[in-house]
Amino acid sequence: MDGAEVVVGKSLQSRLLALLSLAIVVIAGCAAGFTFLSTLNDVHVAQDKQLRQTAHLISRLQTGPVTLATRRRIRGVSLEERIVVRFLNANDANAGTNGDGAPVLPDSLADGIHTLMIGTEPWRVFVLSDDRDMRIAVAQQTTVRDASALRSALRTLLPFALLAPVLLLLVRMLVHTLFEPLRKLAASLGRRPERDLSPLDPAGLPAEVQPLVLEINRLLGRVDRTMLLHRRFVADAAHELRSPLTAMTLQAERLAAADMPAEAQRRMLALSGGLKRTRVMLDQLLALARSQQGTAAAVAVPLQQVIRAVIEDLFPLAEERKVDLGVVGNDDALITAEPLDLRMLVKNLIDNAIRYSPPGGCVDVTVLHGGDAVDLVIDDTGPGIPEAERERVFDPFYRILGNGESGSGLGLAIAHTVAAKLGAAISFGDAHAPAPGLRVSVRFPAALPRA
Hints:
This protein is an alpha+beta fold. The protein is built from 12 helices and 12 strands.
């Protein structure tokens, strides 16, 4: 679990997606801010231009003498835009200002654009003098100008508000698509058998990833060669040790037949037992080395035939330990496997069950059909394997402490290696009949029809 958390925390896809999303947000925010401020300024410029155009238009409309009645018709207030027109330097320039709510503009205003504080409100005023010395003032309330400019500027942000989420979603989809070949490569590696060290296929991968795949292939090649040398060393060492061990066993048997004191006889029996256990361990080492190497082509093997042959071989051991060994049921199935590998798997599991069952115990072997698979189930009445130890018992030379049984710790390692080569899976459970104990199940996939 810790490894998975580290992978997630340092995910290149997540970092790339986060950086691209941050870049989109920053760029979109800067562009939106620039557009907002630019639009706000342009609207204010347009509003000032509107004041100028209004003043020039009024000055052009006055083609004759400007009478008091004419000025009163022109002077007024636009309720929508709050644009006010006033004539300065006229006797009635400010007449009626209190009636229409327009501001009182001072006559001393110079021509041009001004921002005035009239009362408690700011106003924008443009003053124009025409050829007849008539001065026209066009004013607009600043709060109205700002509100109109703000509405126009906010409308320009709508495309950014719609486009940014679309871009974020698009970037997420593109990044996910670009990393899809890597996910497929990781998935294919996860589905590989643990001893499959064949090279990876770089086809379809991005050019940036192919050098990494090539280096992984070189590493797999070196590991394969190292494992081959290791297996050869184990097999050669075990084979070379068999000859002197056989000679020592023969000498011990001759010495045991000679007339010796009781103490010497006792020590000789201990020596013979040690030599016997060593020979068993060497045989298991050779079996482990053979199981890790390539074998002959697989054929359809009747599972019951292999079980009964193994039981015949192990029956003397079961009698010696007073263990009831037998097969439950008559179901059979054809397993696609190399016969020696399948026999090695079944023998090691049943041998292990016999050795760990107490005197008077029972070992039952059952073949069960489950859909397109076949389960080989071995129930014993031994002490079982604790949950915390059930993964480690497949390690070579690993033995559970305190079980009182001598052994090399290679039986389950050999069974696990052969099962992996056959595409089978070994699992542990609790047996309940005829007495509590351990249940070992081997599931063979895609079994052929029943024999």
